[in-house]
Amino acid sequence: MGTTAVSKHRDPKNNKGGRKTEWVEATLSEFDGVRFLHLDSIWVQGAMRVKKPEKLELEYVQRMMAWMLWRDTREMTQGPAVQLGLGAGALTRFCRKQLKMKTTAVEINPTVISANRHWFHLPDDDERLRVLNEDAGQWVADAANWGMAQVLNVDLYDHEAAAPVLDDEAFYADCRRVLADGGLMTVNLFGRSASFARSAARIAKVFGTDQVWHLTPTREGNTIVVAARGVEVPTREVLEQRADHIEARHELPARKWLKLVRPLPMNVIQQLHAASAAADSGE
Fold first, then answer.
1. Are 188 and 43 spatial neighbours (Cβ–Cβ below 8 Å)?
2. Do the beta carbons of residue 108 and residue 156 sit within 8 Å?
3. Which residues of 213-228 are buried (b: 16+ CB within 10 A; e: fewer)?
4. Would the pTM count as exceeding 0.85?
5. What is the DSSP letter of 33?
6. Quick check: 230 and 212 in contact, CB under 8 A?
7. Given this model, what pLDDT does residue 193 score?
8. 43 with 159: CB under 8 angstroms?
9. CA gap 246, 242 in Å, rounded
10. Angle, nearest 10°, between helix axes 193-207 and 169-178?
């Protein structure tokens, strides 16, 4: 999960109007060989197996890589990848080192970046890595970043982990603009089904109902949404071939993902129809 500004750590770099921005401090815990990142609460913001730092430890983080099923195997690792919300750096490390993609991570909380550098094996910036201490909403709204990403991973939660920090149509529209044609976005949605339906409807309104899918929830309640910008869905045979390749090459449970992928649920479609009807009646 990502982060947002709340309290404790003051950062003069993000000073506007002479005011100092305050942040929840990143904190650590360890259990059974796994190191966890927190934001001064019990909620886990990310995890890393200490002896296997390149492995994606959490199931929902593994599922954030489900975009790989929608990309041609020959082009799977081409183009830049962007993460909004650094968490414990798992996706950023994986995209940079395992997939060898040019990778940009946007994280608003400087203590999270510092914790990643010191405790989660996040390397210094180089030709394949940029870690930006910036607001994700402002970053995607900047036209200079539009059309630059083939992959966009969105995981933006605060220390309370109640709902995504950025979750309106304007934000998702900017996320779509950041994607190049054929690009893919994955979003971690966590919480009650009603909250998921609202968020999924906003994403579908921006991307189109034929370009949005979801994986069934994890046991912990994380539901991953996949949204595409102009992707043609391949045949089942091609998807199975891609899943086999992903498992063999990258050791990710892609065959399981394929069994978990679903179209938008009916309650989301109903929300979209109701919103459209309300808009028509107001004209």
1. no
2. no
3. bbbebbeeebbbbbbb
4. yes
5. T
6. no
7. 67
8. yes
9. 6
10. 50
